[in-house]
From TrEMBL:
Family statement: Belongs to the glycosyl hydrolase 2 family.
Domain called Beta galactosidase small chain/: residue spans: 689-855
Protein name: beta-galactosidase
EC number(s) given by UniProt: 3.2.1.23
Organism annotation: Catenovulum adriaticum
Alphabetical list of InterPro entries matching this protein: B-gal_small/dom_5, Bact_Beta-galactosidase, Beta-gal/glucu_dom_sf, Gal_mutarotase_sf_dom, Galactose-bd-like_sf, GH, GH-type_carb-bd, Glyco_hydro_2
Domain (Glycosyl hydrolases family 2 sugar binding): residue spans on this chain: 54-188
Keyword Cell division: no
Residues of the signal peptide: 1-21
Ranges where the Glycoside hydrolase family 2 catalytic domain occurs: 311-524
A Pfam family recorded for this sequence: Bgal_small_N
C-alpha cells in the first residue's frame, strides 16, 4: 500500500505540473482503475458474509461478490432472502497546492446501491441513492476537509441493499444478478475556476446545428462589490475527426456568467451519421476572456435526424428505418457488472456482425460501449433502471433521469429514452426527458403504448399480426425470448415477414444478447444461470456464438439470396436483394470460393479451395433486387460447393452462403464382397464383416453387426408422427419376401395399404432402403421414418451437409453447407454447454453422415432424397403430444415452453415434417406458420443407403 501511495503522489504531482502549465481542458486523476483491466486496490472491509469483519484489499472497480465477499442474490430472490452487506472502502490521494486555485470535484461513475462518501472524516453531501448513474462531490467548497499540499483520506461506505423501498424494487427486484460495490471508475476532475460543465447538441441531417453550453463560474462575490468579468465570450468550432474545420465558428458574448448559452450555425458538405455510415464529428467549445482561452470542452457528435412519424414508423435522415434490435445488459461472467473496455468493444462488434442495428439495456451502458455504438453505427435505447412496479420515488427518479439524459444525450446512437420497464413507469419523470434533452427524443414505456409507440412484449404471432394491423407504430422492445437456444431465430423469419408487410411495423428487439452465466466464487467458479433465468442469450457468457446468433444474422442480413444450390445449367448469375437502409450494393464486395470437401473415408476432415475470386456488387438500390455476375472457371462443376461472402463498404463481413453443387457423387466404400446367407436364412445376410438380419415376417431390420459386434441399428423402418392432439398409429400387417436379383439380394415388404419398402444388399457392401408410404392427410407436428440406435453406442458424427447446428421447422436458417464433426454430448446450450454445438437433434441438407460407434467401426448413411436426419433424442423434447407440456413433471431447470415434439422411440430418424421449437414464453405453434402443424403433401418416398465400415 505504501508503494501505491507514493505512486499516487507522483501522478498527482505530474498532473499538477500539467495544470500549472495552463492546460485549458479538464484533467482527470483516477483514484481507481479505468476499468477491470487496470483496477487499483483499495482497503476494504465487508460487514457480513464471506471474508467479513477484517480489513483487506479489493480492486476498484469491481463487484465484491466476485472477489469472495458477502453473498450472492438473483433479482428474483424474495426480499427476505436478499443479502444486505455494507462495504467500507478506503484510499488516499495527494492534492497539490496548485489545486487551490482550481475547481476540483470527485466523480463516481457507478456504485451499488447507496453510497456515502467521507473526506478526511467529514461526510460529503448526502448519501447517493441509485446504482446505475454517476454522481459527484465538489471538493473545492470543502474548505475544512480538503487538504492542499497533503494527503487526503477518502472513505466510501457502500450499502448494496437500499434503505429506500422504491429504489430496492426498481433496481434490485429484477430479472438479473444483483451485486454490491464500486463497479465503475472513481476519479478527480481538476479544471479552471471558470469552466464548461456540459454541453447539449442537436445536429440535424440538413446541417442545422444547435449547441447549448452550460458554463460555471466558481467565484465568490463580495458584499457591495461589482463582480469582475472573468469570461466575456463563448466560442465554438466544429471539426472532422481528422482535424479539418467544418462551417464557420460560433460565438456569443457572456457578461458576468450565464446558466446556459446557445450557439447555432448551418453547415454544408457534411456527412450524415447512420448505422451504415456512422460519420462522427466533434465540436470544441471555449470560454474566452480578451481572446484568450480560459476553458475548453470537446464533445463528439454526428449529424442525423431521427423522428417518429405517427401511424407510419421511424425515420432516420428522412428515410424509413426498421429496428433489428437486441437487449443487452452490462455483464461479465468473471467480473459481474464491472467490465473492461475490450469486453464492451468485443460485444459491440459482435452485435454489429449479427446484422443487428439497435441495442437496448435495462442498465445504463458504459461510456466505452456508447463510444463503440457511435463509431460502429449501433442505435441505442437508453433506459432508466426500473425493472417492474412499484416505480421509483419521484425525487430519486428525477435525479436519475437527469443524469441519464445529460450523460447520453450527445451520442448520435441514442434514438429513444425508456422511462423504466414493464410497468415500472413513474409518470412524474417523463417530463424530465423533454425538458433536458435538446433533441427532444421520444420517450417509450416498454410493454405499453406511450407517445404513439406501442411496445407490447412477447406477443404470440397472432397478437403480433393484430398489433401490426393497427395504426399505431409497433416496436416490441422484447420479443421471442430465447432459452437454451430456443427463441431468437426460431420464429423470427415469420415475424420479420409480417413486419415488412406492415406499414406501421417498426421492427423488434430480441431478448437477449448473452447468457448471464455467473462464475460463482463460492462454488469454485461454477457457472450459474439462476435456473433458467439467465440462459436466454444468442451468445454464451464469454461471447460464444450460438446457433441463434447465426440464424438472426442470416434472417436480418441486408443482403439476401434465395438460391439454395447450383445445378448444371448455372450461368454464373445469382439474384441478390438489397435490404439496406442507405447502401447501394455496388459499394459492397462479394468474394467467392469453389471448394471440395473430404470423403467419409478420410481420417481427418478438410476443405480444399479449387478456385477463388471477388467481384463488386451490382448497382442495386435499397429495396430493389438485381443480378450478381460471377465469372467462374469452366471446371466449376468439379467443385462440391460455392462459398459466397458479402463484405460491406467498411470491410465487415455481412453474410456467408455455401451453395452445394448438384452432381452425382460417390461416398460409400465400394469393394467387391461376396454375399452369404447365414445358416441358409435369406433374411440374414453376411457381406464381408457386415451382418444384416431382417424379420422373416415383416422385413423390418432386426439387427446389424460389424466385426461380430452389434451396431445397434435395428427395428426399422417405422413411421413416427403426431398431430396437434395425438400420436399416430402406423401399425400394419406386413408381408416380406426375399430373393436374389443378379448379384444383389432383395427383401421386399408390402402391406394392405399398398405401402412398401425394399432392402437391396449389394456385393459392393451397401444396404439400400427404398420406401413408399401412403400420404398422411392430417396436419402434423412431425413425421419421420425411424430406426432404433442406442445412445450408449454412439461416440461421434461427421457429416457433409448443413451445420454445425441442428434445425427446427421454425429455425432453418443460420447453418452452412460444409463438412462438420463433433463428439457425443448430452448437454444443452445455455444450461451446461457453451461454444460447442449440441450433438443430438435434427440436421438438414445432409449429403452423407458417418456415425462413429463405440462397439466397432462406423455407420455411414447416404440419404439420396431425404436430407433431414435426426440423431438420438434431445433432452428437452416432448415424447407424447397426448401430454400437454404444462403437465409434464419438471426436473430442475427444464424449460416449460422451449421444448418440441419428437418421436417417442428410435434413435435415428429421417424427417419428412420437422417439429418447431418454442421460446421461453410460448409454444412452437404460437410462434408463426413455420412452427405450426402442417400437412405433408404426397406419398412418403425416399432412398437411404447404409454401410458399416471401419
Amino acid at each position: 500500500m505504501k508503494c501505491l501511495k507514493y505512486l499516487m503522489v507522483f501522478i498527482a504531482l505530474q498532473l499538477s505540473f500539467l495544470v500549472n502549465a495552463a492546460d485549458i481542458a479538464a484533467q482527470r486523476v483516477y483514484l481507481s482503475g479505468k476499468n477491470t483491466s487496470d483496477a487499483v486496490d483499495w482497503q476494504f472491509k465487508c460487514d457480513k458474509g464471506r471474508k467479513c469483519g477484517e480489513w483487506t484489499s479489493i480492486p476498484v472497480p469491481s463487484n465484491w461478490e466476485q472477489h469472495g465477499f458477502g453473498h450472492y442474490n438473483y433479482g428474483h430472490d424474495l426480499p427476505k432472502e436478499k443479502h444486505d452487506e455494507i462495504g467500507t472502502y478506503k484510499t488516499t490521494f495527494f492534492a497539490p497546492k496548485a489545486w487551490k486555485n482550481k475547481h476540483v470535484r470527485l466523480v463516481f461513475e457507478g456504485s451499488m446501491t447507496e453510497t456515502s462518501v467521507f473526506l478526511n472524516g467529514k461526510k460529503l453531501g448526502t448519501t447517493h441513492l441509485g446504482g446505475y448513474v454517476p454522481f459527484r462531490h465538489d471538493l473545492t467548497k470543502e474548505h475544512e476537509a480538503f487538504k492542499y499540499g497533503e494527503e487526503n483520506e477518502l472513505t466510501v461506505v457502500v450499502a448494496k441493499k437500499s434503505t429506500n423501498e422504491s429504489l430496492e424494487h426498481a433496481e434490485r427486484k429484477a430479472d438479473y444478478w444483483v451485486f454490491g460495490g464500486i463497479y465503475r471508475p472513481v476519479y478527480l476532475e481538476i479544471q479552471n475556476k471558470s469552466f464548461i460543465n456540459r454541453v447539449a447538441i442537436d445536429a440535424k441531417a440538413d446541417g442545422t446545428f444547435k449547441l447549448d453550453v452550460f458554463p460555471q463560474l466558481n467565484y465568490i462575490t463580495k458584499f457591495k462589490k461589482t463582480p469582475p468579468i472573468y469570461v466575456d465570450e463563448v466560442y465554438a468550432q466544429i471539426y472532422s475527426l481528422d482535424g479539418k474545420k467544418l462551417g464557420q465558428p460560433m460565438s456569443q458574448p457572456m457578461i458576468h456568467g450565464s446558466g446556459r448559452v446557445r450557439l447555432t450555425t448551418q453547415v454544408k458538405d457534411h456527412q450524415l451519421w447512420s448505422p451504415e455510415y456512422p460519420t462522427l464529428y466533434e465540436v470544441k467549445v471555449d470560454l474566452r476572456k480578451d481572446g484568450q482561452v480560459i476553458s475548453r470542452y470537446t464533445q463528439g457528435f454526428g449529424f442525423r435526424t431521427f423522428e417518429l412519424r405517427r401511424q407510419d414508423g421511424f425515420y432516420l435522415n428522412g428515410k424509413k428505418i426498421r429496428i433489428k434490435g437486441v437487449n443487452r445488459n452490462v455483464f461479465d461472467p468473471i467480473s459481474g457488472r464491472a467490465v473492461s473496455t475490450q469486453k464492451v468493444w468485443d460485444d459491440a462488434r459482435a452485435i454489429k456482425s449479427a446484422n443487428i442495428n439497435l441495442v437496448r439495456s435495462h442498465l445504463p451502458p458504459t461510456t466505452e460501449f456508447m463510444e463503440a455504438c457511435d463509431a460502429l453505427g449501433l442505435l441505442v435505447i437508453t433506459e432508466l433502471t426500473n425493472w417492474h412496479d412499484p416505480w421509483i420515488d419521484t425525487p430519486i427518479g428525477r435525479n436519475i433521469a437527469y443524469e441519464l439524459v445529460t450523460k447520453y444525450q450527445n451520442h448520435p446512437s441514442v434514438i429513444l429514452w425508456a422511462n423504466g420497464n414493464e410497468s415500472g413507469f413513474n409518470l412524474e419523470i417523463d417530463d424530465i426527458y423533454h425538458l433536458v434533452d435538446l433533441q427532444d427524443r421520444p420517450v417509450i414505456h416498454p410493454w405499453t403504448n406511450f407517445e404513439d409507440i406501442e411496445t407490447f412484449h412477447y406477443p404470440t404471432y397472432k397478437e403480433f399480426k393484430e398489433k401490426l394491423a393497427k395504426p399505431t407504430v409497433y416496436l416490441p422492445t422484447e420479443f421471442l425470448h430465447g432459452l437454451y437456444d430456443g427463441g431468437h431465430g426460431a420464429g423470427l423469419e415469420d415475424y420479420w415477414q409480417a413486419v415488412m408487410q406492415s406499414p406501421t411495423g417498426a421492427g423488434g428487439v430480441l431478448w437477449c444478447w448473452g447468457d448471464a452465466a455467473l462464475s460463482r466464487t463460492d462454488k469454485n467458479g461454477e457457472m450459474d444461470t439462476a435456473g433458467n433465468m439467465s440462459s436466454d442469450g444468442m451468445v454464451g457468457p464469454n461471447g460464444e456464438k450460438e446457433a441463434s446468433f447465426y440464424a438472426v444474422r442470416e434472417i436480418w442480413s441486408p443482403i439476401q439470396i434465395k438460391q439454395q444450390s447450383l445445378t448444371s445449367d448455372f450461368s454464373g448469375k445469382i439474384t441478390v436483394e438489397n435490404g439496406y437502409y442507405d447502401t447501394e450494393l455496388n459499394n459492397c464486395t462479394f468474394k467467392w470460393r469453389l471448394v471440395n470437401f473430404s470423403k467419409p473415408s478420410n481420417e481427418t476432415i478438410n476443405v480444399n479451395i479449387m478456385a477463388s475470386g471477388s467481384v463488386s456488387g451490382p448497382a442495386v438500390r435499397p429495396g430493389d433486387s438485381g443480378q450478381l455476375n460471377l465469372n467462374l472457371p469452366k471446371q466449376w462443376q468439379q467443385a462440391d460447393a460455392l462459398a459466397l461472402t458479402a463484405i460491406d463498404p467498411h470491410g465487415m463481413e455481412v453474410m456467408e452462403w455455401s451453395l452445394p453443387i448438384e452432381k452425382a457423387h460417390t461416398v460409400l466404400a465400394k469393394t467387391s464382397t461376396k454375399i452369404e446367407k447365414v445358416k441358409g436364412n435369406p433374411f440374414e445376410l453376411k457381406m464381408g464383416q457386415q451382418v444384416w438380419k431382417f424379420s422373416e415376417k415383416t422385413g423390418l431390420l432386426e439387427s446389424s453387426y460389424y466385426k461380430g459386434k452389434p451396431s445397434g441399428l435395428a427395428n426399422g423402418p417405422l413411421l413416427y408422427g403426431a398431430t396437434e392432439n395425438e400420436q399416430l398409429d402406423f401399425s400394419a400387417s406386413w408381408k416380406a419376401s426375399a430373393y436374389q436379383q443378379g448379384a444383389d439380394y432383395i427383401i421386399k415388404s408390402t402391406n394392405e395399404k399398398d405401402d412398401s419398402f425394399t432392402w437391396t444388399l449389394t456385393n459392393q457392401g451397401t444396404v439400400t432402403l427404398d420406401y413408399d408410404f401412403s400420404e398422411v392427410e392430417q396436419k402434423l407436428k412431425y413425421l419421420s421414418l425411424g430406426f432404433d440406435l442406442p445412445e450408449d453406442n454412439v461416440a461421434a458424427k461427421t457429416w457433409l451437409g448443413n451445420g454445425p447446428y441442428r434445425v427446427w421447422a421454425n429455425r432453418l436458417k443460420g447453418v452452412q453447407y460444409g463438412i462438420w464433426q463433433n463428439d457425443y454430448n448430452d448437454k444443452l446450450t445455455g444450461l451446461n454447454l457453451w461454444g460447442t454445438p449440441e450433438f443430438k437433434g435434427i440436421f438438414s441438407g445432409i449429403s452423407w453422415m458417418k456415425l462413429e460407434l463405440k462397439s466397432a467401426g462406423s455407420l455411414l448413411i447416404d440419404p439420396k432424397e431425404n436430407s433431414y436426419i435426426g440423431v438420438l433424442r434431445p433432452s428437452n423434447t416432448i415424447p407424447s403430444v397426448s401430454v400437454h407440456p404444462k403437465k409434464l413433471p419438471r426436473k430442475g431447470n427444464e424449460p416449460l415452453h422451449a421444448v418440441w415434439n419428437y418421436p417417442h422411440a428410435g434413435g435415428l430418424h429421417f424427417f419428412h415434417k420437422l417439429p418447431g421449437v418454442g421460446t421461453k414464453f410460448m409454444y412452437a405453434e404460437e410462434s408463426g406458420p413455420q412452427g405450426q402443424p402442417a400437412q405433408v403433401n404426397g406419398a412418403l418416398t425416399g432412398k437411404i443407403t447404409f454401410q458399416l465400415n471401419p
